[in-house]
Design goal:
Radius of gyration: 25 Å
Largest sheet: 7 strands, parallel
Oligomer: single chain
Shape: elongated
Helix content: 25-40%
Strand content: 15-25%
Number of helices: 13
Strand order of the largest sheet: 8-7-6-9-10-11-12
Length: about 400
């Protein structure tokens, strides 16, 4: 049987370093309607028509609010992201952000630009520089909210710079805990972060439960010299409350990577044009991870780093056939799936079934080729979104 060639469509420019990981089994297409998989960065997909051919979407980055997750799940389209691939780039800009907030480097640079034609600028500098003096970060306390890939790297880097570090994450995984320096103090109450930190950096996903979590109540607990760092999502902070607190001198600075009308150009706000992961290395790393995720899913049926389907890591198929079923997570579904093969007299060598909220994923390895009758019966089961014959 001739090997299928998968069609890949890029909604944004994707690093060549990542695309170079595609084999001859893949071809690029300019038409989304032909695509088996889509690679995307920031393009908004909510209003796009998703073709029936589309099997997977990979976001070359950690955030995924530009992708309609539920719509994709209902069509049997697995959505991936690339957590941790751009973590070092974000970590480095956060360290820079702490320094920018501590010392008026921007103000000093602007002063030099304004006085660039002054023949006595060197002499004038010695008098003017006092206006831009600041404080050092060594010995200060950094509070990290969310200890995932970025949060853990920021915590460790800050500790190495001589800062006292506190971390809060009610969902801290064992793997993440192993990556943390033993000097990072883990707290179980986020209010401890607000009350005792000189710098507060937030690294949690944007959900209904986290939107505006740094608002008036949180700010009321903070030190008057506190600096808030937001390189995750703008909606995590009640920016109007932040600006009011800055105006009233209740906090020192707000550094954000997300320009908005509320904060842009406001006193005390240092707003960066979304440069956190904008490094060549981060873009390359994200592209490579996204391509590998797509390949592993299309070729083997493995799901790793999906944001709308359960994790299901499997190796290459060693039997005659492998079939993937994407379906509702309801009682009796697994029995119905396995009965389809049994009814046709096909032996099932192995079954893997994983669920996530309202959806589930079942892989069946067969000792015989999956007949058209089996596939038709699987598709006819109420609650089945998609059936894929992988091998």
């Amino acid at each position: 049987m001739k090997e299928k060639v998968y069609q890949i469509h890029c909604l944004n420019p994707i690093s060549k370093v990542g695309l170079d990981h595609l084999t001859e089994q893949y071809a690029m297409t300019e038409q989304m309607g032909e695509a088996d998989a889509v690679l995307v960065r920031s393009a908004v997909m909510h209003d796009l028509e998703l073709p029936d051919s589309l099997l997977a979407v990979a976001r070359a980055g950690a955030g995924y609010n530009n992708i309609p997750l539920e719509k994709c799940a209902q069509k049997g389209i697995v959505v991936f992201n690339t957590p941790g691939a751009n973590a070092n780039g974000v970590k480095e800009i956060i360290i820079a952000a702490m320094l920018l907030a501590s010392r008026d480097i921007n103000g000093g640079i602007e002063w030099v630009k304004e006085h660039q034609k002054d023949p006595d600028i060197a002499k004038a500098t010695e008098k003017a520089k006092k206006a831009f003096a600041g404080t050092e970060i060594m010995g200060k306390t950094l509070g990290v909210i969310g200890l995932g890939a970025v949060g853990a790297m920021v915590a460790n880097a800050a500790e190495q710079l001589g800062m006292q570090v506190m971390g809060y994450d009610p969902f801290l995984s064992v793997d993440a805990a192993w990556k943390l320096s033993h000097n990072v103090r883990h707290v179980t109450d986020v209010n401890e972060i607000y009350a005792h930190s000189d710098f507060i950096t937030i690294h949690v996903p944007a959900m209904e439960s986290t939107k505006g979590m740094i608002g008036k109540e949180a700010i009321a607990l903070m030190k008057p010299n506190a600096v808030i760092l937001n390189f995750a999502r703008d909606v995590l902070c009640d920016e109007q409350a932040v600006v009011e607190a800055l105006q009233e001198g209740r906090i020192r600075r707000y550094v954000s990577d997300f320009p908005t009308p509320v904060t842009s150009g406001k006193p005390g706000c240092i707003v960066i044009p979304h440069l956190g992961a904008s490094t060549e290395e981060s873009e390359d790393n994200c592209a490579v991870m996204a391509v590998k995720e797509i390949r592993d899913y299309l070729e083997n049926g493995s799901i790793v780093n999906s944001v709308n389907y359960p994790r299901c890591e499997v190796g290459p198929c060693r039997t005659a056939a492998r079939v993937a079923v994407l379906h509702k997570n309801v009682a009796g579904m697994l029995t119905a799936i396995t009965n389809c093969a049994a009814d046709e007299g096909i032996n099932i060598a192995e079954v893997v079934n994983k669920s996530r909220d309202d959806v589930a994923y079942t892989l069946i390895d067969l000792d015989q080729e999956a007949s058209a009758q089996v596939v038709d019966k699987l598709n006819a089961i109420p609650g089945v979104f998609r059936v894929r014959v992988i091998k």
